[in-house]
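On clarity, I found the account of how folds are encoded harder to follow than it need be. For illustration, here is how one protein appears when written out as sequence plus structure tokens.
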Amino acid sequence: MSAARLEAALADCAKARRSVTYGALAAEIGLDGPGRIARLTTFLEALMEVDAAAGRPLRAALVIGRSSGGLPARGFFLKAQALGYDVSDAAAFVAHESERVFTELM
């Protein structure tokens, strides 16, 4: 799996103005086997660091948990908070970052 494949998959999601589940994204970029979601999460957190440092919207906001009510997993919010974002209203934070991805990056 390369960072380029991850970024391309997220760009496709942004162009279509849609989110994607962790499992579907892992399959799309070729991650399989045990621990694939954990590996994907590691890649997404690294991408969050890059996006935050560059002042870009967090593309990882487009990746949602299958049973999390349309929100990313808890680790997304922990990482965002560690990067200095206010995630006290999780749904509003994801909506804001997703809209930024849709409008600023595509």
About this structure: The mean pLDDT is 95. The radius of gyration is 13 Å. The first strand starts at residue 20 and ends at 21.
